[in-house]
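Quick log. Single chain, no ligands specified.
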Amino acid sequence: MSSSDSDSDDERAFDITPNMVIDGKIDHINIGDATFVDCSGCYTLTELPNWPNVIKVNCNKCRGLTELPSWPKVQEVHCVGCAGLTKLPYWPKVRVVMCDSCPGLTELPNWSSVKHVCCRFCQNLKKLPDWPNVEVVSCMKCVSLTELPNWSSVINVNCRSCHNLNELPYWSSVRHVNCESCYNLNELPNWKVVRRVCCSGCYNIKNLPNWPSINHVSLKGCTNLRYPSLSVLLQTELLLEDLKKECILWHV
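-> predicted structure:
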């Protein structure tokens, strides 16, 4: 058992190790005034208490968990590799959720306060909510997704290898999009403030928009792509640096 203070966030941390688990539970343990509980790697754990004051929970690789409590004050949850989870609760104050590699999840709640969601390798997720305040979403290799919501506040989206996506929304605030190997995409929206786009391996895309704020585009393997506009082409990996400089010098 160990308790420590975090210098950066003033978190009062409490670590739970596998030898503390009794009959799949840890409700016999008094975590005191801890606001951060780390029980990652407790493979025999099947149930977690509903801690009223916990703000952050790390239960990565707790494969025996089938559900998580509705912690009322939790703001950050890491449950990566919890293969037994079939659903997650609605946490009213949660801001960060990391639930990569949870194959039992088929949907996620519409957390109203969430800012960052990472649900990579959740191959049975069929739909994502329209989170009103989300800024970062990584759903790489969520192969059952057929569409993504039009998140109004999203800045960074990684939907790499989501093979069943047929189109992407017009995200008005998006800056970075990675849709590499989404080979069912035929076109991309004209995102007005996007700066980086990776669409390598999207071999069904034939045209690219003339993104006005673009700084970098990756197009490797886009074999059906007609030549993009020069303003976009200058930001790709297809032109040599000296050619780029010459085009800029001549204001082409």
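The radius of gyration is 22 Å.
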